[in-house]
Specification:
By secondary structure, this protein is of the alpha+beta class. The protein has one domain (2-98, 190-377): Cytochrome P450 (Cytochrome p450). Helices cover 50% and strands 13% of the residues. Strand 5 (262-264) and strand 6 form a beta hairpin. The protein is globular.
Length: 382
């Protein structure tokens, strides 16, 4: 089913659900919005009804974006593929902000993006762990050798501190420390990479909204770098980002495990069943968003998310919902706004004729063949 759905590109539209999750699309139409399936020997309940789904980093982000934009000067008037550009950018941002090193994670990310069959191999898993262990040991050595009086207060430093905690109740095991680093890197990088890429894609084919966003950025920042006081004032950009998240939300499903018997609506779930929350379904549901559900219309969010969803929180939950929602949501949107602002200050962007519309689900929603655009400089010295 998946192979058939991906066998050819789709028209330049945004009805991506049948393509990126053809099995869930087919089974929802056959069995209803909530259905039970089996993943090997484990039962999995898929639910898609909304009623059941319910400042210190800014300089590092700016520095990373400036590095990327310096490279872009050589592509003015030419085609450039942005998905890989944003992958490098988001990798560097995570490296700077969480691990204090611009180049720490280059080899780590190159290993994460090996083909799936290779990624599962024990050899590669050991290599990835080795990359993380080197980062940890470097922090430990600095303290032991007197180069620093603490492990640091960034993400890695706080976790190394927990690893060395003398209180067993607070101490983090080495395995947990390594796993936390791997999870943070993958989730933090991949989510923003996807969001940035699809936002630029949509702005490239909707020049009116690209110009509206640019005017807002210039009104707030002029030609200066973004700052925290101005970022919170970017109303039009927030509308654009929310509509991008609705159409091409990074996480197209959320997996949970039921720890004890619980009732959700009219459904009684037994303990130990896996729960798959198909949040992409309500975000593409015409009954919730209207007949124009597959159109790019940021004005839906002009009065905020609550009004756009008619106060149905589960109709729009690209980062999850409730206490288990993504802790990196604010950082992801902040990083996206900074990067978009700095790009719009310098370039107009149009979609390249070489672009093939083939969104696929690989952890996040990604462009199978990349996103090719043409850059046009707004300034003669860029």
């Amino acid at each position: 089913m998946r192979q058939e759905a991906l066998s050819k590109p789709m028209a330049l539209g945004h009805d991506i659900f049948p393509r990126v999750q053809p099995h869930i699309y087919t089974w929802i139409n056959k069995y209803g919005k909530n259905y039970l399936s089996w993943d090997g020997v484990r039962a999995e309940l898929v639910i898609s009804e909304p009623e059941l789904i319910k400042e210190n980093m800014t300089p590092a982000v700016i520095s990373s974006v400036e590095t990327m934009l310096e490279k872009w000067k050589g592509y003015v008037g030419k085609e450039i593929e942005l998905f890989e550009e944003f992958r490098l950018l988001t990798s560097e941002v995570i490296s700077r902000t969480a691990f204090g090193n611009k180049l720490t994670l280059v080899s780590f990310y190159s290993k994460l993006w090996e083909p799936a069959d290779v990624l599962l191999s024990e050899e590669l898993a050991n290599e990835i762990q080795g990359c993380v262990m080197k980062m940890i040991k470097k922090r430990e050595d600095r303290v032991v050798n007197g180069g620093a009086d603490s492990f640091g207060n960034d993400f890695l430093g706080l976790h190394v501190n927990a690893y060395h905690d003398l209180d067993d109740k607070n101490m983090l095991s080495l395995g947990d420390l390594v796993d936390e680093c791997k999870t943070f890197c993958l989730a933090g990088q991949d989510t923003v990479n996807s969001l940035l890429a699809w936002t630029i894609f949509l702005l490239a084919i909707h020049g009116d909204w690209q110009e509206k966003a640019r005017r807002e950025v210039i009104d707030i920042f002029g030609n200066q770098n973004p700052h925290s006081e101005g970022i919170v004032k970017l109303k039009i950009m927030t509308m654009i980002i929310n509509e991008t998240l609705r159409l091409y939300g990074p996480a197209n499903g959320l997996i949970r495990k039921v720890g004890r018997e619980v009732q959700i609506g009219k459904l009684v779930l037994p303990a130990n069943i896996d729960l798959y929350v198909a949040n992409v379904v309500p975000q593409h549901d015409p009954q919730l968003w209207g007949d124009d559900v597959h159109l790019f219309k940021p004005e839906r969010f002009a009065e905020g998310i609550a009004k756009a969803t008619k106060y149905n929180a589960a109709a729009f939950c690209p980062f999850g919902i409730g206490p288990r929602s993504c802790v990196g949501m604010s950082f992801a949107t902040m990083e996206t706004k900074i990067a978009l602002s700095m790009i719009l200050q310098r370039y107009t962007i149009s979609l390249s004729p070489a672009y093939v519309h083939s969104p696929i689900s690989v952890i996040t929603i990604q462009p199978e063949h990349g996103i090719q655009v043409i850059l046009k400089s707004l300034h003669s010295n860029v």
